[in-house]
Design brief:
mainly alpha; two-stranded parallel ribbon; 1% strand; disordered C terminus; membrane
Length: 282
């Protein structure tokens, strides 16, 4: 039987996917760091990185679901007990996650810093000489303010799912909205060049229109994902979920109550599937 509530919950993953695969901001410094830069090398680097991310995300998600089912926490590490047997393994996972955050933070900080500085320089109307002279002091101030802001956000945020949804809304701009706008503007520029006779190559009208349709689709998808992510984040803040994530898993210990809970959940799922199958047969 079709359940509209379950169907609507499918869209809950869009902010998480946007957040997890958002690498457009750091793509420019990554491209700059490639030796003998060209499009082929850059495509290989991006493809390899995306494949690695997809494999790691899929393995973590599947093992989390197979272990905890629908009771898995938003932060899977919170589902493991780090005070008894196996606490060392859980702590190693936490340290590895912290190390990953520390190593990726500077790259993203560089992108944010350059964006803030460019807006500041444009707003002040500074001359090239003024930009060079004030660059060190400006860089220190911007980095310090951004670092304090990120620390404050980490302290205030009590639920990682809210942060992921908010960042997912911003990621939707970089993944869908901005590329769609750039593609649409590029198609208009090609049209103008051909009308003026200054284009060196001929582009089919049908092809340009198809590209325009694709760009508009990207823009609409970006607006939809952004609105959905902000709405979900607002709901999480205003109406915190009190969902029970079940007992903690003690790593390396045969926890009878934990596995009995999983067995009960599996039996319940099997019962619901049997009823659903019987209803379809009728």
């Amino acid at each position: 039987m079709f359940d509209k509530n379950e169907f609507a919950r499918m869209f809950d993953v869009l902010p998480t996917i946007s957040f997890g695969y958002q690498c457009h901001v750091s793509s420019v410094p990554i491209y700059y760091s490639i030796a003998n830069r060209n499009r082929k090398k850059y495509f290989k680097a991006c493809a390899l990185a995306m494949i690695c991310c997809a494999v790691v995300y899929s393995v973590a998600a599947n093992f989390g679901y197979l272990t905890f089912g629908s009771k898995v926490a938003d932060d899977i590490l919170l589902s493991y007990d780090n005070e008894h047997t196996g606490a060392m393994a859980v702590n190693i996972a936490v340290i590895a996650l912290a190390f990953k955050s520390v190593t990726t933070y500077p790259v993203l900080m560089f992108c944010v810093r350059e964006a803030v500085v460019s807006f500041y320089v444009s707003a002040r109307g500074m001359t090239p000489a003024e930009i060079v002279i004030t660059e060190p002091r400006r860089r220190y101030v911007v980095v310090l303010l951004l670092w304090l802001t990120s620390i404050a956000a980490a302290i205030v945020a009590t639920n990682i799912s809210v942060v992921v949804r908010l960042l997912g809304s911003l990621a939707a701009f970089f993944i869908f909205l901005i590329p769609g706008i750039c593609l649409f503007v590029h198609c208009n520029e090609l049209d103008e060049l051909e009308q003026n006779g200054s284009s060196g190559s001929h582009h089919s009208k049908v092809k340009l229109n198809l590209v325009r349709v694709a760009s508009i689709t990207y823009i609409l998808l970006g607006v939809f994902t952004f609105g959905l992510s902000v709405t979900l984040a607002a709901q999480s803040i205003l109406y915190p979920s009190s969902e029970d994530f079940g007992p903690l898993c003690v790593v390396g210990e045969n926890n009878t109550s934990f596995f009995l809970h999983l067995q009960s959940a599996a039996s319940s799922s099997h019962h619901h599937l049997s009823l659903l199958h019987a209803s379809y047969q009728k």
